[in-house]
Amino acid sequence: MQLTGKQLIGADIVAEGTTTFHGYTPHNGQPTATTFYEATDAEIDRAVALADNAFWTYRKTLDVQRAAFLEAIATEILALGIDLIDMASQESALPTARIEGERGRTVAQLRLFATFIRDETWVRPISSPLQLQKMPNGEPAMLHQRQIALGPVAVFGASNFPLAFSVAGGDTVSALAAGCPVVFKAHPAHPATCEMVGRAILNAAQQTGMPGGVFSLVHGASNRVGERLVQHPAIKAVGFTGSFRGGKALYDLAVRRPEPIPVYAEMGSTNPVFFLPGALVGQSDQLAASFAASVTQGVGQFCTNPGLFVTSDTATNFTTELARQLSAMPTGTMLTAGIQQAYSHGIMHQRSVAGTQQPTPWTGNGAQPHLLLTSVENALQHPELSEEVFGPSTVGVLAQSKEELLSFARQLTGHLTATIHGTEADLAEYADLVDILTTKVGRLVFNGFPTGVEVNHAMVHGGPFPATTDSRSTSVGTTAIYRFTRPICFQGFPGGTV
Amino acid sequence: MQLTGKQLIGADIVAEGTTTFHGYTPHNGQPTATTFYEATDAEIDRAVALADNAFWTYRKTLDVQRAAFLEAIATEILALGIDLIDMASQESALPTARIEGERGRTVAQLRLFATFIRDETWVRPISSPLQLQKMPNGEPAMLHQRQIALGPVAVFGASNFPLAFSVAGGDTVSALAAGCPVVFKAHPAHPATCEMVGRAILNAAQQTGMPGGVFSLVHGASNRVGERLVQHPAIKAVGFTGSFRGGKALYDLAVRRPEPIPVYAEMGSTNPVFFLPGALVGQSDQLAASFAASVTQGVGQFCTNPGLFVTSDTATNFTTELARQLSAMPTGTMLTAGIQQAYSHGIMHQRSVAGTQQPTPWTGNGAQPHLLLTSVENALQHPELSEEVFGPSTVGVLAQSKEELLSFARQLTGHLTATIHGTEADLAEYADLVDILTTKVGRLVFNGFPTGVEVNHAMVHGGPFPATTDSRSTSVGTTAIYRFTRPICFQGFPGGTV
């Protein structure tokens, strides 16, 4: 595929602006070949106007038609072959095996949503007879409720999953499945990958007879592009995965619009892991190795990366082995120079906090895995130790007692996940911990690791603020579709509904 | 019952403040007997702290326990007998027959939610096996999703339904059913009715062993009380029924909190009714009479009051008969002096707009039923004609053609309901109208009237902004419960879930 660096607006590939930027190869710090053009205000407005126009056709497509569209996207993505794998790997510094796995997940996700909407009960149909209205034949008039599409959706991709949380990722798929056109803001950290996948979606739209404007993609390295998109009156919802600062800024814009709209921003968290006493008996080395692998997976660049763990201050075998494991792991290359810099600053700040132990070496260069230990008392005094440092590090909080562990759990803010490692006896003994964590997270894991968010019907990848801006939703799994729908009911129509 | 005029905070009946106000009898303009005390900041904070504390117990009550609580509330409300009917009628100027009907609806609503949560599938359970995590027996670990309660909810009652949309109304019932404690801001237009129902709820809570603080009620005639409530960090959602100004102000406060929370404000609309050509053939007099009854029901003080209708400019038989019917109807007494004043101002403003016909008399005094007619062209030039004037009035927009009718429909903002009167042939001919209205409302009615919102499983009493602040929800019907829940999933727990 010959890359253009231009906007994909409906079927048009255009660039009217003069502001340009380049992608970047994290491995060598060099810009990538293609020049990308920032979308102009007029281009953004045209993409949204086309989406708004497409909505009137697209919202009435049959479920099976949209399912075919999603499946065609999957086929088109696979048809990009090794070129897509190479480009995504080049732009993200993630190894090709990981990108291949991510492509598999992206394609499976498209197919899962296609299957999901082929079952017509996905619209949550509910019927009730009325007491006050009769039909001409004297029967009670009926009320039929179902979910319908909200309208055009603006989607912002994440840097850390250039396929699965980007152009054809969970937000786009669930919006398209619901019947909502998508205007996608390409991520400037992998613009070439974005163009490739965007064009695959346009090919699929054309093949399956979808209306022009059902999908558009706009580029931009500045905040202006996303800000204009979110404030456009025809945009009816926003999907975002990324930083707290970015997600909260979009939320603040959206709720201040003359017509406020929902924003589903998944902003990450530290996903605390609790190692209870029974978990460590006879297997602390094995657990330390598994935990070190979870902390450093994908250079620690996972929304569900366990950046915080809590255990007894007597678990020295575990923490010693964890330090040894993390120290032995290689320094990785992060997604962008900015993320690398933020990681270094974050670790250096953590190391400057009084009352901490730092059993892993720290050169100050690169994405070196890192462990910091502190007491519950000190962690409660320094809440910044519990905040996310995006990357391959974790902070261990050591409790002197069960009560101290619970007191730390009680003051946690919202997280995507929390995890408990223990025996069934631990679980009974620490029932209060389960109870507390249930109020703090979207997913509670027992004897597993939070990384590795499988796409299925039951998944919840969400959680109370500040993990997301809307705890009533998930951005992974089929129930993600209901972020982009609303209920309507039809009363007294002949044949029941329209 | 001896009224106290005080706050109900958990089991305590207290008044620490010195600011007082009185209820008001609309029929004679006189204050009612009891002196009510505005809640102090400390009282509000105590009510929320108790609710927050109660949440830890209440969220774990069994569905059958909460169902018994709801049923006990119904019993306690009925036990108030004629005293409640008389007080609600006195404070609202609504006739006793209407209040009796509203009590029936309130009690039936409590029992419907009790039945609903007795069926354990109300939590929307979803299960999926995992590929990456195994249980000790080698089976795949399971992921179980379900809905759980959000936390303490602040509820604001409406003046126009002193029972069904007030203390034990739809918002309170759905929050309590979900497992959320409620702090209720009593409406200053019917504070005595509020105290009576609030004490019925507290009696029911005590009888059924619910935790202290599961329900509290605070009084206030000033905005301070509600503003403090919505901004309290332990409040996790807000339910509101009332004016656009009031609902939007609470929304604006809630989204600017350090931790933003959802606000479900039902702010009313003009609920356009379309009379298509076939509907009027041979039955325009009958339709005019039914429509006049819908416009003036409850002195026009319904959220779903049809304040706007659209028909052909040749439908003069219909409009003439409608004018005759409305002219013949008595002038009613409105809920409050403020509402009466707003109605008079609204009608006088409408009458001052150029290009309107005013076929009903207008004395300028009281809630006199009113009809105003205008052309589509003039209505599009004067959007204020399509805005809500709360009371027994309606604006008829007369179209010269089908295209003109559709162009008017296209520019409608969000409404709670829209209605189409016509034959099946009209419905086929005006398929575009059905399509347009589907994007504008929460409920689309055929050959019925929008007033009379039945409480059942399929009802949607909601709609796109500005009808509500959250089109993804309904404030009537059993799906209203999901305003106060969020999904969580449990991964890998022995026995599946906790």
From TrEMBL, chains A, B:
Q: Which UniProt keywords apply?
A: Oxidoreductase
- Annotated ranges, domain Aldehyde dehydrogenase: 18-456
Q: Which Pfam families match?
A: Aldedh
SUPFAM superfamilies listed in its UniProt record: ALDH-like
**CDD domains in the record:** ALDH_KGSADH
Q: Name one GO molecular function term.
A: oxidoreductase activity, acting on the aldehyde or oxo group of donors, NAD or NADP as acceptor
User: At the top level of its lineage, which domain of life is listed?
Assistant: Bacteria
Name of the protein: Aldehyde dehydrogenase (NADP(+))
